[in-house]
# Entry
Amino acid sequence: MKKYLEQYAAASFEEGYNLIRKGAAVIDGSGFGILKVIGDNAASFLDSLATKDIQYLNIDTVSECLVLDESAVALGNVYICHLDTDFLVLTPPGSEKVEAFIKAQAADGVTVTDVSDEQDLLSIEGQQVYKIVRDVLNVSVDMLPLRGIQEIENWNGYSLLVCRIGRSGEYAYAVLGKPEAMEKVAAEWFAYAKNAGMNIGVAGEDAMEACMLETLQPDFRTLPVQENDLFTLGLQWMIQYEKEGYIGHDAMKELFEKERASEIVYFVAKDRKNVETGAKISLEDEVIGEAVQVCVSPALGCAFGSALIRSDLAVSGVVFTLTDKDGECSIETVATPVVRPDSWDQPMEG
# Structure
C-alpha cells in the first residue's frame, strides 16, 4: 500500500466489499502498470497489438481491450488512453505479461516508457463516488462518459488525469498524477466523504476480486488462459470482430470457427463459505467440469464462482454436485451478473 494511504487503515475483506458496493472505496493502484507511448507511429503501433480499434480512437477516450500473442492466447486486458499528444496504457493486476510484450514490440517511430515510478494511480469506486470526484476535483461528471477522460491542468497547483473506468461495475474513476498530488487527492477525498456522512475507506484487491467475479470482469490473476482459449473463457466481448491486422488475429479467427467442448458458467454454493479452485463438478455421478474461479460473496452470504463445464450443460438454473477436499455440496448455475451493482439502476444526482 502507498505510504500516504496507511493512515486510513485498510478495510477487511467484507468491509472493503461493502465500501465498493454501498459506500466509497479508495483502491491503491500500485498493481497497475503505466506505460507512456509516444511517437509519430504510436497509434498504428498500438493498433497492431489491440483487439479493438486504436488508430481511430478519439482523443480523451479509453479503449478497454485484449492483447493477444501469435497463438491468440490472451496475455491480459489493457486500458489504452488517447491523450492530446500521446497514449497511456494501463495494465491492471494480472496483466503484467502485456507490459513486457508491448515493450518488446516497440519499433521505429515509437517510444515506450514505464512511468509507474513517476505517476501514482488511485481508483475510487462505489455508489456515491461521482459526488466526491465532482466536488473535490471539479470534474463535470455528468459530461464525462464511460471510458471518457478529463485532463485537469491545475488542481491545487497539480495536473491530474481522470478516467471514467473501473473494475467493480459500480460508479468508478481512476485518477493519475504525481505522488505528491495523489497524496493530496486522497486526503481531500476522505475529508469530503466524512463531512458528507459517507462511508469511505481503503479497499483491498481481495474485495475487488469478489466484485469483479460477480460482474464478469476479466481477472487475469485467476483466469486459466494458458489452458483455455478466449472464447471458452467468455472473453469475446473484448474483441472488435471487423478489425484485422493485429497480432493474434488470424489464430483468433481459427479458434472462433472451432467447436468447444466446454464453456464458462457461473454458480453459487448456498451451503458453503468456501469452494476450492479445481473442484470437480458432476451430474448423476458423471464429472462434467470443474471450478476455475472461486470467491465468497458477502451480498449472497455464500461461495460462488465460475466453472468450465460441458457445453451442452452450460446454462443457468441447473443443479450440480461439486466435490472438493471438504466433501460434496450442491451448486446451482445462475444468470449473470451474479450480483447486480446498485449503480446500474441509480442515476447520478445533481
The two ends are 33 Å apart (CA to CA). The chain has two domains: 3-204, 210-334. Helices lie at 13-22, 42-47, 96-105, 129-137, 179-195, 205-214, 249-257. The mean pLDDT is 97.
